[in-house]
Amino acid sequence: MIGRAILGALVATGFFETTAMADVLDDIRERDELSCGVNAGLAGFAAPDANGNWTGFDVAFCKAVAAAVLGDPSKARFVPTDLDTRFQLLKDGQVDLLVRNSTWTFSRDTALELEFAGVNYYDGQGFMVRKDLGATSVKELDDLPICVQAGSTSAQNLNDYFRAHNMTLRPVEVVSDAEGERRYTAGECAAYTTDASGLAATRAAFADPENHIVLPEIISKEPLGPVVNQNESRWADVVRWTLFALIAAEEYGVTSKNIEELVKSSTNPEVQRLLGVSDDLGAMIGLDREWARRAIQASGNYGEIFAANIGEQTPIGLARGLNAQWTQGGLMYAPSFR
């Protein structure tokens, strides 16, 4: 039995905190699998095909993390989650990492004891309506039924917006994207509101997308990003710096196609450190020196992932906007690898 004095010393020196930090990364390695909580089915972000193979923007990030930690992007397992279960599954340890359209907020960061490891998509709440409604602004939705997911940040934003503009709100609460889509298309709602990226994904899946429009107003800031539990510092660092590696790779022109060439030829010190040529940064987060190289090779850099899954040439059709590199007028910016 450990004496109280020794126990106190161990707590003071952070022994138990350090042990806890190691648990997630060590557990993933022991089972040789990364478990990612994702949206149950949001086109372009995370959705299974007829054979059960998952693809999408969020899926690609999970694969990058799996490649960094386990050396193989195929070792990512995808667990569908909904609004009610997503955070509890993470807290219960049923998933190692949550990567789905979850907004970073004060209460989630503090009261729920979660840690957002960065922002992989800057979003905002929008509204979709049928073109024949004739509406051109959210302010024309006064006293009309609006589908919104119960318990979401979208529901609170909707209430705040209508109250601030002295409008009558008639919410039609739904429990999932699927129910929201069903009730909207059935005509039970004049509008459907959620993150603008989600509306684009939903609209793209319609048989008649040309008959629906997303109104121009964005009524909130919705920074979406990967989530881990608090007090898992080392694991949070792995997730955070994998995201930064993908963002930095785009900035420095490192792609899935030219990465091997740049490993041999780049004279840019930042690229050399990123790719493990000149420094072993991986040792600082419990990984090897080629972790970032594998993450980029898995599905490409941030820009490649965006373009392949949700970009303007896909059915989702999203412009980069705020998610462009900082050098191109966006907010995507990675701290230095040094």
Automatic annotation (TrEMBL):
Pfam families: SBP_bac_3. Signal peptide: none annotated. This is Amino acid ABC transporter substrate-binding protein. SMART domains: PBPb (SM00062). The lineage of its organism: Bacteria, Pseudomonadati, Pseudomonadota, Alphaproteobacteria, Rhodobacterales. It comes from Paracoccus stylophorae. It comes from the Bacteria. Gene3D superfamilies: Periplasmic binding protein-like II. Keywords: Signal, Transport.
